Amino acid sequence: xxxxxxxxxxxxxxxxxxxxxxxxxxxxxxxxxxxxxxxxxxxxxxxxxxxxxxxxxxxxxxxxxxxxxxxxxxxxxxxxxxxxxxxxxxxxxxxxxxxxxxxxxxxxxxxxxxxxxxxxxxxxxxxxxxxxxxxxxxxxxxxxxxxxxxxxxxxxxxxxxxxxxxxxxxxxxxxxxxxxxxxxxxxxxxxxxxxxxxxxxxxxxxxxxxxxxxxxxxxxxxxxxxxxxxxxxxxxxxxxxxxxxxxxxxxxxxxxxxxxxxxxxxxxxxxxxxxxxxxxxxxxxxxxxxxxxxxxxxxxxxxxxxxxxxxxxx
Length: 314
Fold this sequence. Notes:
The chain is mainly α. The protein has one domain (29-301). It is 78% helix and 0% strand. The chain contains 14 helices and no strands. The longest helix is centred in the C-terminal third of the chain and has 29 residues, at 225-253. It starts with 6 loop residues before the first helix and ends in a 13-residue tail after the last helix.
């Protein structure tokens, strides 16, 4: 017998989804500083130290918060997805993207990274069996293509390097995978606890790794105050606080649909470049922004009737 959704339930779900999209946007807002800050940081630190150092900073903050809140250790059944999230968020994305940015420009990285929302949706459907409509896929693909065109107009065709491209592809897959694995645990614990345990459980690896890398590479680098600030910013914002909002957003809106908000990340990154670095914003950029925003709205309106949303634990 088919279930019937009452108007009251429908409205409640709609409010939940909208709240999830707002939280997802806050997460994307914080993530949008990641590539430019990494580009600056690798000028003063080894790319490996940039990746490990940001995780150590996040782990120290998370450990203090978990102790203050007296949060119990996760049950064994949840350690597996938390471990997978650690592989992608702590090691995969930061190391691969830092190595890629040593070989190419952030604009070129943006061409391939534009497909991250689409790959996240694909992995979510395969991993969690989240149901979406054909119209959603059309909106997601259209938005991804608009982002590619946008990146190309910003010089993304320059700086081509096959090794760098493979590194970015790996980074995108790792990041999408960790988003889905981490979000799956938010059904039983808040997103802030998920990312907190991810970076805390990684400390036995990231602390000694950071120490060894620092000893071996410190003679080759002389980080400036700005490069230090960017490294700390990566640890606090991109590696930690951004996930608070991001995982809550995915839990409320659904992983596939919520991930499409990340299409706005490249545009926000450009905005910071314009405001902070004085880069010009062209008419083409504005048109690309309008197209991407339209595709994000389209994807949200194309929610399938079978799409499921599970409110996270508080």
